[in-house]
Fold:
Amino acid sequence: MSEKSAQKKKYIVETAREVFTEKGYKNVTMKDIVEACGISRGGLYLYFSSTDELFMDVLKMEAEEADDVFAGKVRQDASPSDILALFLKEQKKELLGKKGSLTVAVYEYFFQNKVPRKDHPLKQQFDAAVKIIEKLIESGVEAGEFYCEDARGAARNIMYVLEGLKIASKTRGITEEMVDREALYIMQGLIIEEE
Structure:
């Protein structure tokens, strides 16, 4: 793919993200994307054959951006507790952020499209995050910062709490205090208190 084509595809995906954020998944048509991008229907179909295919690229872009943002903020000399605190801070920003969220669109997509469990992109993303947090907790235990007998279980629990907060933010609403309380609870459950 030429540089110009790659830029055009990126533009379509970025614009589609805004449309999916605004309308959810189930209400978006290829016509909506064409109008938002200001391109022809044929121009869109050169890159994507369906809203499903386009939405999967939007999710891929989201995951890459999240990884880049987080990786760019981790100092070389950061301790495991610093990294976990930064991770939770980034999650808080996402949960409370004014920038639109794809949460509703993501759930609509997966409720509408029966994806096999092992191939489920949300499951893969969840499992990858659990693995990263597990390694982080293990590093903290080795460094004497954390106490945890089941790093995988703790990592899974952290991700379930964050997933629950995402849902709550879209259903009944959450406050900064609520997010802070859960983050503090997570940190208190791991950090060894100095005597």
